[in-house]
Write a structure and sequence with these properties.
Keywords: Hydrolase, Signal. The longest helix is centred in the middle third of the chain and has 19 residues. α4 crosses α5, α6 packs antiparallel against α7 and α7 packs antiparallel against α8. By secondary structure, the protein is of the alpha+beta class. Strands 1-2-3-4-5-6-7-8 form an 8-stranded antiparallel barrel. An 8-stranded mixed beta sheet has the order 9-10-12-11-13-14-15-16, with helices on both faces. The protein has 3 domains: 79 residues, Lipocalin (Beta Barrel); 218 residues, Rossmann fold; 87 residues. The two termini are 26 Å apart. It is built from 13 helices and 19 strands.
Amino acid sequence: MRKLSFAAAFMLAAIPLAATAGDPGVPTPQASSCLTGSYRMADGSTLDIGAAGAGTHRWRRPDGQTGALVRQDDGEWISTLGWTERPDGHRLTVSNCKQGRIRFDNVAGQREPLVQIDTRFQGSGVALSGRLTLPPGDATVPLVVLVHGAERSSAIDTYSLQRELASQGIGVFAYDKRGTGRSEGRYTQDYLTLAIDAIHAMHEAKRLAGKRAGRIGYQGGSQGGWVAPLAARIESVDFVIVSFGLAVSPLDEDREAIAFDMARAGFGPDAQRKADEIASATAAIIESNFTEGFGRLDALKEKYGTEPWFPFVRGNFTSYLISTPEAVARRDFPALLEGVPAHYDPMPVLSNLDVPQLWIFGGQDRDAPPFETLRRLRELKRAGLPIATAVFPHADHGMYEFEIDARGERASTRQPEGYLQMMVDFIKSGRSDGLESN
C-alpha cells in the first residue's frame, strides 16, 4: 500500500478521473488477476503478489523487499528492483494460476486460502464498498481498518496490506474512500467527514467478522494520520497506527517540507528566511481560496527567482503555485484542494486521545518531515498518553527506502526491514515494547 503525499495527491487531482483505473466503472487489473494473493513458500517464507497496472505485478516480502514483475514472451516473469527499472535477478513462473501454484526463484509456493468478504455499507450519507480479509480458520483475530491517504485509487484493488497482514494472522478491512473505486459520493479531503466514514467502516468490519472479531483499531498513512486519530477520538477503539502522518496542520507541513529541503541542500538561515516568505505568500493564496495574493507571490518570484536556493523551494503545494500561471491556479486549484482544512490543528484531538498509538516515520521524508511532530508527540508522551514512535532513518514518504538515480531523483527500492513486523506486533498486543518515544 503506497500512500500518496499531500503533494502527490495535489498533482494527481489534475488528471482527468475518467481515465484512471479504480474509478467507478473502470476495471482495475488487480480485481481480475488470479495471480494476486499471498503465498506460502516451500522454504517457509511468505510472498505477496498484487497487480500493479499496465500488465505488471508487484511482489513483496515481509522484510520490505519488493520488485515489479513483467511477463516475458516465454511466460516467465522477470523482476526489477523496487520502483527502479534495474533487473534484480528474481524470477517467477506460474505453475497453475487458478490453483495458486507458483515458483519464485525456483522455490515452490501455494496461494494461501485467505477469506475475503466483499460488502457495501453505509458511510456518512453515501454507500461505500469494502472488503474484509481474514486468515483461514475460525479463531478470534485482531482487526485493523485501513484508512485512506489522499490518493484517489481503489483501496480494495491496490492495498497489499490487506493480504500481508492477513497472512500474519490479522483481519483487515479495506474500503474505497468516498468518490474512489466503487464507493459512491463526492471525493473530499474533509477530515471530519472521512473520520465518520472510517467509524462506519469499523462497525462493518466488526459485523462481518462476527465471533472472530477481537481487538480492533485503525492504520492510517499520510493524510490518514489526521483522519484515524479523529475517528478514534469520536468513538474509541483499541489502537491507532499512524504511518508517515503528522501532528501539524497542512500549512505547517508545507513550511516544514520547504525548510527540510533548504537544509538538505546546504542553505543557511538567510535562505531559510527568504524561502519562508514564499511559503507565507502561498499560504495566503490558499487561505483566500485562490482569489487573492498572487501579486505578492509574483513579487517574491521576481525578487528571489535568480538566487541559488530558489530552485530548491518545493514543499507540498508551494512548488505548484510557483510554477502555475495565476489564471490556471484560480480556475483549477480550488477543486484540487476541496475540503482540505489548511489550518487544521490535530493537537486538541491528540491531547485527549487515551488510546494506544504507534506513530512510524521516515527520517528522510521530504513531503511530511516528522521533526515538529516528533517534538509534539514527546510532549504528549511526557503528559502520560500511551504514544510510541519509531523512525526509520533512511525512509522517504510512504516508508520507502531509496537510491539516487542518474538525474539526481530518488528511486524507491524497498520498505524498511521491520516496518511490517512492527505493525503486526502492535496490532496483536497493543504494546510498544522496545520502541522509543523520541
